[in-house]
Specification:
Elements (H helix, E strand, L loop, with lengths): L2 E4 L5 H13 L4 E4 L4 E6 L3 H11 L8 E3 L3 H7 L5 H6 L8 E6 L6 H4 L5 E5 L4 H10 L2 E5 L16 H4 L4 E4 L10 E6 L2 E6 L5 H35 L1
Parallel strand pairs: 1-8, 2-8, 4-6, 5-9
Antiparallel strand pairs: 2-3, 3-7, 4-7, 5-6, 9-10
Helix pairs in contact: 1-6
Length: 236
């Protein structure tokens, strides 16, 4: 059975230290996120990531998402050619958006997504998680439920058989919105909606379209200003 610790402000420093200790040892932690409770492990420890699949009864052909502490950290995990487009969505982070992009040459990426060149990444909008991620580095995180079962929004909803397989569980009561993160895959400047969640598809499309059209608008504006200046010079 997991060591269950209540997460509150008074004990946050001690809980953070304990989390880091458990993760460093390659064990699993159940923790709150901005959506539902998550099951987390160090992304760069192969046995720890394998433990996530085993604990959930999850098909190993299904990729795991990596959570990081900032948009800049996410960008470093993306292939160079994917970074500019990824940056266009950075205003939605921290938040309930998972972005799948072509990954950089990360040795541990194969632990999370062995059958694809892509990697799903997210920056959660949860104060404790952001502190943890800034200290721990990338974590492999999935919902804290048995495969095929509902994702828990409340600590009381977590299956006891899952808790039996983790070292540490943080009880923060009810967490997040209960809605899953929206998942999109980027390819070039285009995106495919893989799962609808809290962030609307229209908002993502608008951000990408706005950023893509900005350089063209700037060029058009410059050309118009040049024409006006030339007209004034001819009149003069």
């Amino acid at each position: 059975m997991a060591e269950i610790v209540r997460l509150d402000r008074a004990a946050e420093e001690a809980v953070l230290a304990r989390c880091l200790e458990v993760l460093e040892a390659g064990a699993l932690v159940v923790l709150p996120t901005d959506t539902v409770y998550g099951l987390a492990a160090r992304a760069d420890l192969e046995e720890a990531v394998a433990s996530i699949f085993a604990a959930k009864g999850r098909d190993t052909a299904k990729s795991l998402v990596v959570m990081v502490g900032s948009a800049e950290a996410a960008e470093r995990l993306a292939a160079p050619e994917a970074r500019a487009t990824l940056r266009r969505l950075s205003s939605l982070w921290p938040g309930p958006l998972t972005v799948v992009v072509k990954a950089a040459g990360i040795p541990w990426k194969r632990f999370l997504a062995p059958e694809t060149e892509t990697l799903g990444m997210r920056v959660p909008d949860h104060p404790f998680m952001l502190r943890l991620l800034s200290a721990s580095g990338p974590l492999a995180v999935t919902s804290a439920n048995l495969s095929g079962k509902p994702a828990p929004q409340s600590f009381d909803e977590i299956d006891p058989s899952l808790l039996d397989q983790v070292e540490l569980a943080l009880d923060a009561g009810r967490c997040g919105s209960g809605l899953p993160s929206t998942v999109v895959e980027l390819e070039g400047s285009n995106f495919t909606l893989l799962r609808q969640g809290e962030v609307g598809e229209e908002r993502i499309a608008a951000l990408l379209a706005e950023q893509e059209s900005a350089p063209r608008d700037a060029v058009a504006g410059a050309e118009e200003r040049t024409k006006k200046k030339q007209g004034k010079e001819r009149k003069g």
